[in-house]
Amino acid sequence: MTKTALVLGATGGVGGETARALLRHGWDVRGLVRSLRPTLDPDIRWIEGDALDSAAVLRAAEGVSAIVHAVNPPGYRGWPEQVPAMLANSIAAARANDARLALPGTIYNYDPAATQLARVDSPQQPRTRKGRIRMEMERSLATSGGRTLILRAGDFYGPRPGNSWLSQGMVKPGTARAILYPGAKGVGHAWAYLPDVGETFARLLGREREMAQSARYHFAGHWDADGTRFVDAIREALGRRLPVRGMPWWALPLIAPFNPTMREMIEMRAYWRHPVQLDNRDLVELLGEEPHTPLPESLVATFAALGIAA
User: Fold this and answer.
1) Could you tell me which of 209, 194, 140, 206 has the C-alpha nearest to residue 164?
2) Is the separation of the CB atoms in 10 and 72 below 8 Å?
């Protein structure tokens, strides 16, 4: 029997890739979007509305068996007020339809100085504003009384990435001349290729009967143990041995008062100074494997979509 899912944030990175993966797995997919336009994916049934409008979310969710909450306020603006309101609307819509509510999670719930290997039940001690908001989002799901799914992953990258380190500074669009790497030398970092994350969500949502009421999994993705693997894969994908420059962290506070993205980047510095690796054993136990595109192949597809050439 065909199932129906509503994806909030279906024009973004995680939401868009999850919507496409669900379509491949035979789901009917709806997407809530603030304004309809001809460039939207024609395979998705688009419904005009705002994730902050509870009535619009309820209308869009009528009869669905899953809701993917992958929507965030644009440009990091209004997170403390808008993020809880958006999530409350999704929780209400999921409960009204007895639907599984799926949420993309992050490593920001963890203290990077204290948690080198994060398991699904590791203590959450966020040290950033964004991490505290993420922890509260998960807590809201846990106390909602409904069926929920959280999939935590490392830093996203992909053909349609939204906000990501790779697309917003590590390699400039156009002809690449250098790699700007934010991490400290020898420090590991977790990367998550968005099409693989979307495929993982689709496979999990297809195993409804085998998941706990409050299901939590970790997506290991590509683990770069010392900061060199990802850089080498970038060079391989672009066919050039580009020089590597360090992130000028000292300069970011000068820009931060005028740029919300810079303020967020400063908060994330600790995750580039300490490694946080995600333990995916529960995910592999359920699915048999974690969807995994080879790193160089994933970067070739990413750079082609972003217009980055060697």
Assistant:
1) 194
2) no
Give dist(CA 302, CA 166) in Å, integer. Answer: 10
Give residues with Cβ within 8 angstroms of 67, minimum separation 6: 5, 6, 7, 8, 61, 90, 93, 94, 97, 99, 100, 101, 102
Spatial contact of 156 and 222, defined as CB atoms under 8 Å apart: no
The verdict on pTM exceeding 0.70 is yes
Rounded CA separation 60/199 (Å): 23
* CATH value at residue 238: 3.40.50.720
What does the DSSP 8-state code read for residue 167?
Answer: I
Q: Which helix (H) or strand (E) element contains residue 7?
A: strand 4-8
Give the residue numbers spanning the domain of 260: 4-309
Biggest alpha carbon–alpha carbon distance for the chain = 56
CA-to-CA distance for 133 and 72, rounded, in angstroms?
12
Buried-state track 132-167, b at ≥16 Cβ within 10 A, e below 16: bbbbbbbebbeebebbbbbbbbbbbbbbbbbbbbbb
Cα–Cα–Cα angle for 239, 244, 247, rounded to 5 degrees = 135
What does each of the 310 residues of the chain score in pLDDT, given as a tens digit? 579 999 999 999 999 999 999 999 999 999 999 999 999 999 999 999 999 999 999 999 999 999 999 998 876 677 788 999 999 999 999 999 999 999 999 999 999 999 999 999 999 999 888 899 999 999 999 999 999 999 999 999 999 866 678 877 788 878 888 999 999 889 999 999 999 999 999 999 999 999 999 999 999 999 999 999 999 999 999 998 999 999 888 777 777 666 666 777 788 899 999 999 999 999 999 999 999 999 999 999 999 988 888 6
CB 283 within 8 A of CB 136: no
Give dist(CA 287, CA 258) in Å, integer: 45
